[in-house]
Specification:
The protein is 41% helix and 8% strand. With 105 residues, the chain is mainly alpha-helical. The strands form two sheets. A two-stranded parallel sheet has the order 1-2. Strands 3-4 form a two-stranded antiparallel sheet. Helix 2 (26-32) packs across helix 3. The radius of gyration is 13 Å and the shape is globular. 32% of the residues are buried. The mean pLDDT is 88. The protein binds a DNA duplex (13 and 13 nucleotides) through residues 5, 7-8, 25-27, 30, 35-47, 55, 58-62, 65-69, 72, 75.
Length: 105
DNA sequence: TCGAATGACAGCG
DNA sequence: CGCTGTCATTCGA
């Protein structure tokens, strides 16, 4: 219940690896794990026991904020604080800010 | 222990 | 715009 699941652990780690001012998508994380569980990834972050995990840096493939347990409003605020510009709940130059966890960057 | 439902999504008709 | 597909977790029996 409060222990790292193999899958979850991967998700948390990847998300945690996201550099500041950069973002990633659920799809990319899932792809990095060689899975298509976009949902599972989102679920992992949703219940993430590691509140330190920057789950706010994970957005949808559309570039939209998606959702946030604390309210997307807060998510946007945090992202803006990170230096990311949000417009109409969408990330500006979202494609440029995408961080590929699989890229072992 | 097994089955069904849920969820911060994605892709296609 | 709406339905279906995919994966893991959780709830219920």
């Amino acid at each position: 219940m409060f222990f790292v699941k193999d899958f979850y652990s991967k998700v948390y780690e990847l998300v945690f690896k996201i550099p500041k001012g950069r973002i990633t998508t659920y799809k990319l994380v899932a792809e990095a794990l060689n899975k298509r569980a976009y949902r599972a990834v989102g679920n992992a972050l949703n219940k993430n026991p590691y509140k330190s995990v920057p789950c706010h840096r994970v957005v949808k493939s559309d570039g939209s904020i998606g959702g946030y347990s604390r309210g997307k409003r807060k998510k946007i605020k945090i992202l803006r604080r990170e230096g990311i510009t949000i417009k109409n709940n969408k990330i500006v130059d979202f494609k440029k800010l995408i961080f590929n966890p699989k890229n072992k960057n």
